[in-house]
Amino acid sequence: MHPDSPTLPAGLDPALAVQRIRALARAHGFQRCGIAGVDLAGDEAHLADWLGQGLYGTMDWMARHGTLRARPAELLPGTVRVISLGMDYSHKDDTEAWATLADPGRAYVARYALGRDYHKLMRNRLQKLAAQISGEVAPLGFRVFVDSAPVLERALGRDAGLGWIGKHTCLIDRHGGSWFFLGEIYIDLPLPIDQPASAHCGTCTRCIDVCPTQAIIAPQRLDARRCISYLTIEHDGAIPEPMRALIGNRIYGCDDCQLVCPWNKFAKRTDEADFRARNNLDRARLDELFSWDEAEFLHRTEGSPIRRSGHERWLRNIAVALGNAPTSAQVVEALTTRCTHDSALVREHVQWALEQHGAG
């Protein structure tokens, strides 16, 4: 990053520069591209209030880097603009997703986690894109981010015109819904800023109403401690008993709030090979997944975001889902195989599940 106040290089046409950046972004596989400034004071206040209420659960890293998250120029000195980019991951399988949720013997995995981990794919493409911009458009100092540092990505995406922050806290593009990943390039080049996206949720509350655990406690206000995505992915301890029955068969994340969003009728299906479902995770049976030992889990989840949560949480989550499944000899037999598991966490959830079937 350049230490002095940055200026555009002599002879550089700002409009043409932005036009070229958008074209390069499309060539690198990004469907959305916009440029935001670095003033996030309003969002910083919103974040501070959310943190102050303890709604982040055990995600201590959220509190630890709270202010830095809303101050790009402090995270990377010299930053004056952020190029925000979106990559679609929609499978256009809403009917199949609802069918899985309605079948208590099947496992529901959040659509974003069905394939390979998006972090590495996007980071590599962002790095190549930024290097090409620096070589072809104008020399610049930069750093790319994909959930890899304290970045307020949705606020930046909104300010870059990629979409508005919906009542469920996801970013929504009126032309493409909310099924897309976000990535950022922090730069020291003062390019023209895009118009922030305006909100179009109106009076709709479908996402709030459908949430199985009522984790969306107000528009744009999520209580992570009640969120199934948090409980099944981020939370490393016991899932609170009052939450277990509400989780249903969701073993990794939750998409209900996006599945009901009317704007997702405009979502575009992606043909990105890395995002295609692996290991039949879009239709797998609970008892089948519960049978994976740690070696098989590590093998099957290689390159998947699921691996980061680990085998212990995998079994914990599936035990809860099996506890919510209809009672059958097959379900009880599957749970019984883990009664003496090395992990006290797993054993606790297996015992709870067996009790739901009168077999504790």
Largest sheet: spatial strand order: 1-2-7-4
Instruction: Give the low-pLDDT segments.
Output: none
Which oligomeric form is depicted? Answer: single chain
Approximate helicity band = 40-55%
Largest sheet geometry: 4 strands, antiparallel
Residue-averaged pLDDT: 95
**How much strand content do the residues show?**
5-15%
Distance between the termini: 61 Å
Shape: elongated
Q: Helices and strands: which structural class?
A: alpha+beta
Number of domains: 2
Number of helical stretches of at least 4 residues:
17
Radius of gyration: 22 Å
Order of helices and strands: HEHHHHEHEHEHEEEHEEHHEHHHHHH
Strand elements, count: 10
What is this structure's SSE topology?
Elements: H1 14-27, E1 32-36, H2 41-52, H3 60-64, H4 66-69, H5 72-75, E2 81-88, H6 94-102, E3 108-109, H7 118-136, E4 142-145, H8 153-159, E5 164-165, E6 171-172, E7 180-187, H9 206-210, E8 216-218, E9 221-222, H10 228-234, H11 241-247, E10 250-252, H12 256-259, H13 286-290, H14 294-300, H15 310-324, H16 329-336, H17 344-356
Parallel strand pairs: 3-10
Antiparallel strand pairs: 1-2, 2-7, 4-7, 5-6, 8-9
